[in-house]
Amino acid sequence: MSIIIFILVLLILVLVHELGHFLVAKRFGIRVDEFGFGFPPRAKTLFKKGETIYSLNWIPFGGFVKIFGQDRDDESVNGVDKDRAMINKPAYVQALVLVAGVVFNLVLAWILFTVGFASGMPTSSSSLPKNTILENPSLMITDVLKDSPAHVAGLMPGDKILSLSSGEEILDGLITPTELQTFIQAHEDSSISVTHDDGKEIKVAEIIPETNDSGKKVIGISMDTVGIVKLPFFRAVAEGARYTAITTWGTVVGFYTLIHDAVVGSGDISSVTGPVGIVKIVGSAYDIGFIYLLSFTAIISVNLAVINLIPFPALDGGRLLFLLIEKIKGSSINQKFANTANFVGFCILIGLMLIVTYHDIVKLF
Asked: How far is the C-alpha of 263 from the C-alpha of 340, rounded, in Å?
């Protein structure tokens, strides 16, 4: 089921991205030869409207738009339709077409966050919007340190902590992070029974705290009070926009940190989640609830937007960089060089994806 949900999510995200390119290209009179659902080889021509073929393709991971004159060739330079070639349009038009996919992904994230807040969005107390009430609050694990006592005992991010007990002492009800930490310090040499809900069943884990570098007893989790926030429609729209902006900035900072660490040699590729890992996360989000899936889909949509803006060959950001260079130098970049750069960039991206996928698979065993 997880793989089906993942394919549907990816299909929607990529199609929305390509729809942005498609609509803006059409708006400025650029010829669009094909809009494909999935990637080639082509399985079936659905229909043809005007000059555009709408096709169904065998590889179901997303879609594509074939825009005439996106790359310089004889037909786009000397052909009958040369005035409708993308390369012959003003630079600002080409830039709008290239950035449209990113904008559509951000708009989709905004819509999904809005639906989430209007329906009831799981939100942490640390990011609670002003003048709102957190409904059904509970203490949720947000991260588990690898090989920590909590990790060994089977606690996972997303688990709700219902109670703690040690001997005759019990801590239950609405537990705060401070109360949990105090309880652990008070029973530092004892086994602590942690009753937690993983969304499917209630379990009890036996944990003995360990001493961290600061000399404190810990079990190796990060946590926050999480509940449901439900907003009126127009406030949900505003909060959806705010969340989209926050998520976008957080994603930009995250990618900058990842690239910086990779350059200086301190990066860890195993910490990056690839397709296999995302399948697992999507499945978990779907199991927890539909709103969680909407929220996670919005986050992936923002990630797709940010990734595509990176000035790297084969990405929209790379094409924007080439366009900027052409504008500055006043002449076109050699097409053979551009094609080679895009091909090499594509191969590097595929290689990185395969490496990350390998690490995803290793994590499963």
From this structure: 23
**312 closest CA partner among 348, 281, 282:** 348
Same domain, 206 and 310: no
Among 207, 250, 7, CA closest to 109: 250
Give which of 95, 75, 72, 82 is closest to 336, Cα–Cα.
Answer: 72
DSSP per position, 206-272? EE--EE-TTS-EE-SEEEEEEEEE---HHHHHHHHHHHHHHHHHHHHHHHHHHHHHHHHT---GGGS
Of 228, 262, 293, the last residue of a domain is 228
- The token pair at 29 is 């009179």
pLDDT band at 19 (very low <50, low <70, confident <90, very high): very high
The first and second tokens of residue 330, run together, are 């006043």
pTM: 0.79
Same-domain pairing of 187 and 291: no
Tell me which of 228, 243, 262 is where a domain ends: 228
Residue 169 a catalytic site member: no
Please report whether residue 215 resides in a domain: yes
DSSP secondary structure code for residue 31 in this structure: -
Tell me, yes or no, whether 127 lies in a domain.
no
Contact yes or no for 252/306 (Cβ under 8 A): yes
Taking 3-state DSSP, the helix, strand and coil percentages for the chain, each rounded to the nearest 5, stand at 55, 25, 25
Element (H, E) at 122: strand 121-124
pLDDT tens string 338-358: 888 888 887 887 777 666 655
| CA–CA distance, 98 with 70 (Å, rounded to integer) | 10
Q: Is 260 exposed, middle or buried (0-12, 13-18, 19+ CB in 10 A)?
A: exposed
Residue 155 and residue 248: Cα distance in Å, rounded?
Answer: 29
How many angstroms separate the CA atoms of 230 and 132, rounded? 8
> Is residue 45 situated within a structural domain?
no
Which member of 18, 188, 201, 239 is catalytic? Answer: 18
Residue 118 CB: number of other CB atoms within 10 A?
18
